[in-house]
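RECORD TYPE: inverse folding
INPUT: structure tokens
STRUCTURE:
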């Protein structure tokens, strides 16, 4: 029988309607957490919510509908969450996507960067007051081993489509690590922690937003699929970072299979991490101003 060790813990997780996010949400629900899942499609999110309640017997499961490509919607979702909760024990930034063609999102940013970096940045920033004041709060972000192929250029990455390719995804996953490290620095003086992890290759519906890595990577994924992990295996480090007592001591780490791993060189650049944070704040303010001006 699953222990209800998460009873009283408030958890918010994005990307919870498929894959490792859904697997993690199921684990959190079964262990008694007060859980809020974030989804994009209302019908699908309500269906997953019903599944979580039925399988776990936990009725303290809620949902938020949010278009993560629109930063104004991310702020709205955060405000809705704060209207119901005065604490957050775990924020799991898990949603992500990759696309077969370069696209500018509705806020004017390259869509991979917008969804995979700016959305979790904005969500975390909007909830930072709760994170700071909740004892032992944890922020867990889903990165990828693909980060090793990323190359972040603060001047061109956010908006340029010129150098777009599979590396757009890799660069966004590199940004997740830089964000984690700078967030941890800014959480100094609190009991909160921020870590990220790579789930390995997982058999999921990743890419269901119309995402596609292109023909070559699709072939690679198809060949590797029989050897890929289950969503539950992929979610293991997420759940562990979010709940395990022994993970509480980890601060600003990149985790692989429950162990700190060394990411690529750019990910260890503290100045780049700080500069990315400053830039991200500015981009979020600009997006807010544009959204305000269009209403």
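DESIGNED SEQUENCE:
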């Amino acid at each position: 029988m699953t222990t209800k060790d998460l009873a009283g813990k408030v958890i918010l997780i994005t990307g919870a309607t498929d894959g490792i996010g859904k697997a993690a949400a199921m684990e959190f629900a079964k262990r008694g957490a007060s859980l809020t899942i974030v989804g994009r499609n209302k019908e699908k999110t309500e269906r997953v919510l019903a599944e979580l309640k039925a399988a776990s017997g936990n009725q303290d499961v809620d949902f938020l509908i949010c278009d993560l490509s629109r930063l104004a919607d991310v702020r709205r979702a955060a405000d809705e969450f704060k209207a119901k909760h005065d604490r957050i024990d775990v924020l799991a930034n898990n949603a992500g996507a990759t696309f077969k063609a370069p696209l500018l999102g509705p806020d004017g940013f390259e869509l991979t960067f917008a969804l995979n970096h700016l959305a979790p940045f904005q969500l975390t920033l909007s909830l930072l007051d709760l994170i700071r004041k909740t004892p032992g709060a944890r922020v867990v972000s889903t990165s990828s081993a693909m980060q090793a192929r990323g190359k972040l250029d603060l001047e061109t990455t956010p908006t340029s489509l010129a150098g777009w390719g599979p590396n757009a995804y890799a660069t966004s996953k590199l940004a997740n690590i830089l964000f984690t490290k700078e967030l941890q620095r800014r959480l100094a003086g609190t009991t909160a922690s921020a870590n990220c992890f790579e789930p390995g290759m997982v058999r999921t519906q990743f890419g269901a937003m119309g995402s596609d890595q292109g023909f070559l990577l699709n072939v690679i994924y198809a060949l590797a699929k029989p050897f890929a992990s289950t969503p539950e295996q992929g979610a293991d480090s997420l759940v562990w970072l979010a709940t395990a007592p022994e993970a509480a001591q980890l601060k600003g780490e990149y985790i692989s299979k429950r162990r700190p791993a060394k990411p690529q060189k750019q990910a260890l650049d503290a100045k780049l991490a700080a500069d990315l944070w400053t830039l991200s704040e500015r981009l979020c303010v600009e997006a807010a101003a544009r959204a305000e001006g269009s209403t």
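NOTES: The CA atoms of residues 199 and 234 lie 5 Å apart.
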